[in-house]
Amino acid sequence: MSGVEGSDVVARPEAGVDPRPRQGGAARASKAAFRLRFLSVLVLFVLVFVFFSVTKSSFFTSSDIDALLTGASILWMVSIGLTFVMLAGGFDLSLGSLLALAGIALGHLMVGSGVPFGFAIAITLLFGLALGAGVNGVLIGKMGLPFLVVTLGTLTLYGGLVDLWSKSATTEILNPSLTALAFNHALGVPIPVWIMIGVFLAALYLQRSTYFGRDVYAVGGSADAARLSGVRVSRTLIAVYGIAGLLAALAGVLQDARIGAASPLVGSTVIFDAAAAVLLGGTSFAGGIGGVGGTAIGVLFLATLQQGLSVSGVQDYWQQIITGAILVVVVLLDRIQREGLASIGIRPRSHGARSKPEIRASSSPSP
Amino acid sequence: MSEAVLRAVGVHKRYGGVRALRGVDFELRGGAIHGLVGENGSGKSTLLRILSGQLAPDAGEVLLSGMPVRFGDAAQAMQAGIATVTQETTLVLGLSVAENIFLGPRKERRWYGIDWRKTRSRARAILERLELDLDPDRPVAELRPDQQQMVEIARALSMNARVVILDEPTSSLSDDEVNALFSAVRALRREGVATAFVSHRLSEVFDLVDAVTVLRDGSVVGSGPIGKYDRESLIGEMIGRALEHLDLGRHEHVSTNPVLRVRDFSVPGRVEGIDLAVERGEIVGLAGLVGAGRSGLLEGLFGLHPTAGGTIEIDGKPAACRDPVSAMRLGLGYVPADRKTLGLVQDMTVRENLLMAHTARTWRLRRPSAAREQRLVEEAIGNLGIVVESPNAPVARLSGGNQQKVVLAKWLANNPKVLLLDEPTRGVDVGAKAEIYRLLNEIKETGVGILVSSSETPELRLLCDRILVMYRGRVAASFTRAEATEAQITRYAVGHA
Q: For A114, how many CA atoms within 13 A lie in the half-sphere containing its CB?
């Protein structure tokens, strides 16, 4: 063995490799942090829920719970779609525009062309899937363009198409089936809630119990390593943007159903709430860590907070301020928990003798 | 020649249990170029990093003009007049030559701001001292690599550096570029600067230096004016060590139809004209310096370079490795040198990493069978002796050696015909290295062909049935296990045909 040892002795510093190769804890820490953030938001959610139930007698009635859940259905869909994209290490700014565009498409199909209800919905959903996968997915996954630039472009592009196609006007959709989709109950539970449960379970299955789900985590964790192991990175990315597009279109359908019309004004801010919900749920911006379970809690927390605050008569802008502050604080806390105070730039100054900026050419040796 | 400007006296350095330097004395004189040679791992880089203030020695001291110095970092060393130039430049690519020479607050100023005219003319004066024909206004990004290094030398000169350390500046340069760089270095010598020069290419050392010091295993084994040496005696001093053998058993398991045959293979800019064959149950080693094209060849074979040309045959059948997926399908497995970011997905579990290649072709919406996976993973963990608390532990929690075993297991689960390994024992401790050697030997016994690249010659001699030596993108020599002496390999690796 000693011959080998001899070669090893001095090879390492030369090869530029850290002589102490054990740099273990990164993944463990981040997984733990995910669980931590998930749990802290879950606890926060329960606290907020209990608080409003106790302080506001009008909050905890079953009809208000129904309203809370169905009100959250649109955010729910967009957030779950966005979770897949973020797990794969990307982001999709265009989902709000896509939601509006799908809503307009549904209006045209049902009012303008008179396509039967079920058929119109199916076409709308496929339309969202095709735009997500075929435009964002192909440009980002296949051609390797940066996701922020691509989805910023499609955000604006789809927004323009919405106005062009709707002539900036809201079209009323008078269809009993569509109204039923938003407001009827089945087995005592509102239809949108059934859809939310269905989508959530499907997403959870996809994420946890299929090879596709593993691919998503692998691509988000390290796209290069995944590719070298034979994972089809392009296809995976196309698929996640497709899923996000499909769910944004579903959100567009629910939006039309709720207001009984196809409006060009919807969806413009939903992406910010969705990003907040996903991040609150513990999914990492860098990809590879998190999941739809956390996102569900994140959405419910935001919805409860907003509902509770508005029942309490708090102004709209206060809701925004509180939501934003909570997001920042939660992300900050879990960073501190994970990497210590130093990681956010707060450290005791022990590094006294920093070299002064004026590098004079006098070159006197400093003894 | 004048007196010593920079001296190291009795310098010791250890990394954990590894002794990188064992009492080294070294000195640089003004107006002289001093060569520092030694094999990969002889301690050259450690010594240079101590001289340039990036590392503190455990014992011994560094004297600058006779005064002991201890620098906190490279910036302090730079202030004291010691500049380092490596193949990785520290230039800001978007800025001009003049801006880079006077980077930061060193530009000429006036009450209204930076005096660009004066800054430019000072830059031009320095470039002239180095006899460089460079426009001070050109963005550095447009320059060739050698010109970029010269800008870095110019910066050192502008700060009145008295010592310039050139750490393998030529390893990525062409011959013409090397000559241009050398004339700048000779200009430094005329300016009275003390220069240290490290290169693996001995012809360059003989071209340029006035004196040379040979390091081996962290000690100085020879030093003197370059006229004292010829190529043979220099190589002799670099490698003169006795090696014990770890006997891995018989090595005659060779068939006659190779499992991998490569003809006239090239990856533009990396390798060209490669012909090689790997027999079933044979380990073929790739020796050569860093940058000789070993990694480029392995990446090309695994389909990572779409511009690769030439023919590949696997099991006698023509094979087109266009991308990793097709290479895998053809029976190749690839262990990259960078285990942390390319070999494994650190956020995922041992089980997920281990099965990633094996399940890469399954229908994606299928549900993984927990029982079957558990069996496969436990089998692999047992066979390869991976130390892990649970298959569901994050792979990042494993030690380097165990992580590398997971990478190997990932490919073994795929029943490969050929394994391509790039530096399989880098960053792995000594005990784990021996285990990896044993594993590779077992894998080979099952009839897999293995092509392994390593910058550690003793490792290749221990492991391989045949060794190919690469030099500047080509196979310079081929040795059987018996012929492959350390001296022979080093000779061809440094381009001495």
A: 0
